[in-house]
Amino acid sequence: MSKEQVEIEELMRLCGRESSKELENLNVDQRRRLSTLVVEEAEIARPMMLVVLIWCVSSYFNLSKSGVFYHVDSCSSAWWTYTAMELPTLLVVMAMITWKSIRKYSEKKQLTWQPDVGDIDWNFRKAILYPSAAMGAGALGGLLGIGGGMV
Question: Which biological process terms from the Gene Ontology are attached to this UniProt entry (predicted)?
Fold first, then answer.
């Protein structure tokens, strides 16, 4: 078995494919890029760092409002500034993650990758709907006093 055939077999395994017809039509650079995208998607450390980043940003704003870092009076202009800045900051982070997810998904689809059953078919509509539903569920959970495990 040639090295190229071994690479195609490995890529088929990573992509969950039974047929290699489309993969054989890709050039070496395209196969390497597809392989890189699929392997990056399997990493856990980077998404966990993003979760920690979002948690830290949210904690910073809330701890700053409470006066832990600075003396901030409730309902003062500084307090309202921290309150007003939290949502736009988190929306920017969400937009960056969403843009990256759509871009990678589109690139994989162009390289003949086939999504698995249950994978999200990322497009602009779903990229807005999914985080919005999560925010709505979190808001309802907070307002109703339901624990995060139930949301």
Answer: protein ubiquitination
> Is 56 a residue whose pLDDT tops 70?
yes
Q: Cα separation of 89 and 95, whole Å?
A: 10
Per-residue confidence (pLDDT) for residue 36, from 0 to 100: 81
Cα dihedral 136, 106, 103, 47 sign: positive
Q: Where are the alpha helices (DSSP H) in 43-76?
A: 45-66
DSSP-assigned letter for residue 68? S
Could you tell me the CA-to-CA distances from 141 to 7, 32, 51, 115, 138 in Å, in that order? 47, 43, 19, 32, 5
Calculate mean pLDDT across residues 141-148. Answer: 77
C-alpha torsion angle, residues 127, 129, 135, 136 (rounded to 10): 180
Per-residue tokens: 34: 């597809």
pTM of structure: 0.68
Query: Position 88: which residue type?
Result: P
